[in-house]
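Okay, any thoughts on this one?
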Amino acid sequence: MGCNRNCGLLTGAIVGAVLAIFGGVLIPVGDNLIGKAIEKEAVIANGTTAYQNWIVPGSSVYREFWIFHVLNPSEVLEEGARPKLEQRGPYTYRVRYLPKENITESGNGTISYMLPNVARFEPDMSVGTENDTVTCLNLAVVAAPALYPGTFMQILLNTWIKSSKSTMLQNRTVKELLWGYTDPFLNSIPISVNPVLGVFYPYNGTSDGPYNVYTGTEDITKTAIIESYKNKRNLSYWEGHCDMVNGTDGASFPPFIKKNQVLRFFSSDICRSIYGVFQGKKNVKGITLYRFAVPREAFASPTEVGDNYCFCTDRVISQNCTLAGVLDISACKAKRPVFISLPHFLHASDSILHDVEGLSPNEKEHETYLDIEPITGFTLRFAKRLQVNLLVKPASKIDKNKLMAIGTSQNMEYMRSKSPYFDGNHLGYTNLDEDYVMIQVIPSNEAKA
């Protein structure tokens, strides 16, 4: 007996219902299989897919520097004119190509390590040579008054500065400015002091850490989260919650990222933990990524965001904690007057940005973000951007230090590596040629006489 139209409809309905039932069964089964695969391969344990990429990036990481050349040094020094800056670069170095050192597994589900620091110049990826000369801030002359504020000591400093024929601005090669040079002013001081300094001195041959992080083998929700840094849970630089080491190092996060999460990560470059919030989805070579960006509120003044109260350390410089966009990190820089901001003072108060000419803050170019594969928690593309500034305070006993000046170093670091991803069946690697991380550095002043 043949099946009429009603029979066909009924059969279709039954088959559809059966498929729906099986689909409802298979969905949680599939999710469970994916979860098991992630728990097996995304943890930091010898033999997993994630482990080798954790030890050393899949391929090269580069750091690109731009130097802000001061175009009007005479006007700045003699008349107190606003510095006019010209950006020069990039000067590119290969970094982070050495594996983590002193890797030690603990019995409590953690693993510790040191990050070796190394930088090798890449002439084919640079605009010039390391011997290119720029007019830039004299780091020693600017920092000295902050380190020795007493009147008598500043009179002595002024004598040594004059005898060494030093001024607030100087001409230096790119190599000297970045990695170190013997400063004539420091070399003339008749007491024991290291005369070598540079924006990143010392760097080559040093290490960062130790870091101790959770492997995820005992609790997958803690994978890559920092348990301690330099054997401490706190930094001893800030008060309250600002002093805590929170989150991961940014290279990866615990699996199964949600859009409503706040992702926290620690950066020793800025001596604090920071956070990112969901900004949107990105598609890279067919892989859906979640973009988390550091919001403007992270560098807002305490008068706007109350939780930032413990980052305000000097009420005079911060104008009673009302200035936005700069962070005083002198406590972790041996009291040198170092301030952190986003590049070109993005999101900073107008009074700071307009003290110099030649800066153009742009959110697209200067924000920090991380593009994360949400199932594994791996960061596949990221842009870590920051700016390091030197505060120039008036010093009545030091000639030429009554004027305003700006320093001149900026750098961008980016990575082209094989990054791990999950395609629904297994963990694998893909070459993401657009992967990069940026760090920008501009020593500068924000104070007038």
In short: The chain has nine helices and 22 strands. The longest strand covers residues 272-284. Residues 5-30, 402-449 have pLDDT under 50 and may be disordered. The longest helix spans residues 5-41.
